[in-house]
């Protein structure tokens, strides 16, 4: 079979890009089609891949201006010529699902979520003016029509399965993403009394990092936040001395923070959530908001604790319960649970998926 991979763009390293890298390892000879890419990103993370680009790459500063050029992207993704391939796997954040393919080519969409800002976060953007509202409306029409071109949807979680059904009216297969950063061997049978709690996340307002900072400001416990994003400056302004916002760190550095933290904090709702599972692979308990993908990737009282509402008081109460139960967590059991989401499992399920397409 001739297989191609399609991704929206390659600009920064996030969960979707980590999954694409794993798909490339499974299908190393498959070309990767993208709307545009950052050359530094490709050199670092996909140096051996054959990258094929759309005409959007010719636009000066496209990697910085792309958020203002969404109206060009539907036609750009539809322009890809994939007629020579038997199977196309789109790793779709927004646009990659909109490919126009010949009947003989099977389109499998690995869907991270129906486009959030068009659907379940639509009301959050309703005050941005009539032109922006009209643009979202037209994109929503295109997005719904594009979903009809997909032969098989694959969801990253049951949460996303429900959204695919609600917004696209489609059934989907479930294949959980793989954890990439993980302990390379068994962990110690007892949790060390480490001094700091850890967050690894992109720093956007909807990630609720400010909620965690407010809670830790009052608790006084040491919190380390790793990640970058537009909310970084504002978060630094409200953080007390017990909170360190470190910005970007390499994977090797992040691994050491996972290894040495007391527990991991996930204050936001995620469609799946790779970082809590990465922490679990090191045997560390997690405190997570009781919504979204965390409901599928955590076992309360065994791999960590939940808190119900994204407010500082609820998160602080979760920290209290986590600390009370801390000596009862088994790092070995937590690590064993995280193995359910391994690279090996992902590889097996993806190969089974493509074989079923023959």
TrEMBL record:
Entry's Gene Ontology molecular function annotations: glycosyltransferase activity
Chain ranges of the Glycosyltransferase subfamily 4-like N-terminal domain: 14-177
Gene3D superfamilies linked to this entry: Glycogen Phosphorylase B
Protein name, UniProt field: Glycosyl transferase family 1 domain-containing protein
Domain (Glycosyl transferase family) ranges: 195-326
Domain of life (superkingdom): Bacteria
């Amino acid at each position: 079979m001739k297989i191609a991979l399609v991704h929206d763009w390659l600009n920064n390293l996030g969960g979707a890009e980590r999954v694409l890298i794993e798909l490339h390892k499974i299908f190393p000879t498959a070309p990767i089609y993208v709307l545009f890419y950052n050359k530094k990103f490709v050199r670092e993370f996909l140096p051996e891949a054959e990258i094929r680009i759309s005409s959007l790459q010719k636009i000066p500063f496209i990697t910085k201006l792309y958020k203002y050029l969404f109206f060009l992207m539907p036609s750009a993704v539809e322009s890809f010529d994939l007629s020579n391939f038997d199977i196309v796997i789109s790793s779709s954040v927004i646009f990659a699902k909109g490919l126009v393919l010949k009947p003989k080519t099977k389109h499998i969409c690995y869907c991270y979520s129906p486009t959030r800002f068009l659907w379940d976060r639509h009301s959050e953007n309703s005050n941005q003016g009539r032109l922006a509202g009209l643009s979202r409306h037209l994109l929503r029409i295109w997005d719904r029509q594009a979903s009809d071109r997909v032969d098989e949807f694959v969801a990253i979680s049951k949460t996303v399965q429900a959204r695919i059904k609600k917004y696209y009216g489609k059934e989907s297969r479930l294949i959980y993403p793989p954890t990439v950063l993980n302990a390379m061997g068994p962990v110690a049978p007892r949790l060390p009394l480490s001094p700091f709690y850890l967050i690894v996340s992109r720093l956007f307002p909807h990630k609720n990092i400010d909620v965690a900072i407010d809670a830790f400001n009052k608790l006084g416990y040491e919190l380390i936040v790793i990640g970058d994003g537009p909310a970084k400056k504002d978060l630094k302004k409200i953080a007390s001395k017990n909170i360190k916002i470190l910005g970007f760190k390499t994977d090797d550095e992040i691994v050491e923070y996972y290894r040495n933290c007391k527990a991991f904090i996930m204050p936001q709702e995620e469609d799946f959530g790779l970082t809590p599972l990465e922490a679990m692979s090191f045997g560390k308990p997690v405190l997570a908001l009781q919504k979204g993908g965390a409901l599928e990737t955590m076992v309360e009282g065994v791999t960590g604790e939940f808190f119900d509402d994204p407010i500082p008081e609820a998160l602080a109460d979760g920290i209290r319960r986590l600390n009370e139960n801390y000596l009862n967590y088994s790092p070995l059991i937590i690590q064993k649970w995280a193995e359910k989401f391994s690279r090996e499992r992902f590889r097996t399920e993806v190969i089974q998926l493509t074989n079923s397409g023959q």
